[in-house]
Amino acid sequence: MLRQDAGRFMLGKYLSDKKIPWQRKRRLGMAMTGNTPTASFLTKIGKMQSAGSRLCSIAREARGESTDGLADETHTHINSAGCEGMATTVTAAHHSIWRHLYDSMHAAQKAKSKLKFVTLDKESNMSTLWRRESF
Ligand SMILES: [Zn+2]
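YS: structure for the whole thing
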């Protein structure tokens, strides 16, 4: 929140931007204030019986597992890889962002730089890196 072009200043800029649809602003406001209609929130206001994650429950039922001991369905939970129903999507988004960041860093690299991007084409570990190097 203290970084330049981030935090409350950018939040205010986003919320006052007339090109952004109000539904998106409303969703962001709900997330910021903890009023997202998650099971946790709906249980708190008496609209649901259980705060357990509905997405985790669906994922477990699909695997034929017990739905006992579900994590509370909070905004944070459903946006994390810890949610069994969202893990694949959240992980794919993470990998996509990481790939974009990595490609951007590589594209911005100066010709004189001695930094070597070792995993642009594929994952590497110390064993494969060791084999690539010629000594
Ligand atoms: Zn979940």
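YS: worth flagging: The first helix runs from residue 8 to 16.
IM: good catch. Also The two ends are 47 Å apart (CA to CA).
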